[in-house]
Amino acid sequence: MNRLDSIYSWEKSNAVPEAEAGMKLPARRQFVRLGVAAGLGLGAAGVAAQHEAGTAGRPGPLVWMDYDQARLDAAYDQQFWASNIQSLLRRTTTNSQRALAYLPPKQVWAYGTQADETIEGFLAPGKRHAPIHVFVHGGAWRGGAASDAAFMAENFVGRGVHFLALNFSNILDINGNLMVMAAQVRRALAWIARNAATFGGDPARLYLSGFSSGAHLAGVLLTTDWTQGFGLPQSLIKGAVCISGIYDLQPVRLSARRKYVAFTDEIEAQLSPQRHVARVQAPVALVHGSLESPEFMRQSRDFALALEKAGKKVSLSIGEEYNHFDVAETLASPYGIAGRLALAQVLGEG
User: Would residue 206 be called left, alpha or beta, if left means φ above 0 and alpha means ψ between -120 and 50 degrees?
Assistant: First the structure.
């Protein structure tokens, strides 16, 4: 049986003992790790039924698989799938602002000449040659900021891991050109690798995570040829956790997102991580929530299948009863599905 062809619950034997954890996982928010074959359609039908009202009416001509235009647009629009979206976004900002009171002083480095080409970091106190975890924020390529990730930093800094988050241009400010954004995050990661020693980091222990459109960009980083143009080893990234991402741009190009992203054949081909899995050298942990759009769930499943077929080390995990936004918050906790996976990679426990 293949690694991804089994489904199993997050067993009590795999969890931190309650006495040590100091907390108990909510009963309805169980973590499930599943194989792609077993997970085809898991939760999708139920979630889709909840949102049919948003695209009610006679289906129009199909534009992608069994989606007409209205349903495809809805599949890539999170407001149809997360009714608490505004509360969650405000909570992210508030929690990150509060985190500044107990985190080490924030460091800011420039990796380019543009105002938004910066890296914000929280360094583990007293640590030299420490592992580095780099986070790429989401926001449908047109929102978000590194500052909103501060609340995630304590999970890493408290365990001797430097936490860095990338800033880059809003797609609306670069004429919809994803190539510019991809080039920015590549230069940012290269800067971190080359300058790690200056802030007590170990460039040989560089780990990555990303959420939503940031998971897409994390996928771009995983499938970058680092030997060409950067002079860095292809094994630059030692592990990655990609949360609720997009890994093939074809259906996104057909969706309403084409109104602000200037998709071209070249962009679709070059920046679809699923098409370049041969370049991946690191273990990849894919995560999504069970209450997400069926398209976002399918994107993770298909990327997992492509990685496995290419012989790469990959896992696919589902947060039961989590939507697109609140599954990202699990990166902030050692008991959360994404946080547990990220720490296991960095601390060598996975």
Answer: beta
Instruction: Go through the domains of the chain in sequence order and give each one's CATH number.
Output: 32-346 (3.40.50.1820)
339 contacts 328 by C-beta, under 8 angstroms: no
Cβ 297 vs Cβ 43: under 8 Å? yes
pTM score of the predicted model: 0.86
Strand order in the sheet with 31-34: 7-9, 31-34, 314-319, 284-289, 237-243, 201-211, 130-136, 162-166, 118-122, 107-110
CB atoms within 10 A of CB 285: 26
pLDDT for res 17:
30
Residues 6 or more apart whose Cβ sits within 8 Å of residue 157 = 103, 104, 122, 123, 124, 125, 163
| Joined tokens for residue 126 | 């007293």
Tens of pLDDT, residues 259-297: 999 999 999 999 999 999 999 999 999 999 999 999 999
The ranges of the chain with pLDDT < 70 are 1-57, 349-350
Spatial distance between the Cα atoms of 344 and 339, rounded to a whole number of angstroms: 8
Residue 85's pLDDT is: 87
**CB-based contact 32:9 (threshold 8 Å):** yes
Q: How many CB atoms lie within 10 A of CB 58?
A: 5
Q: Are 99 and 153 in contact (CB under 8 A)?
A: yes
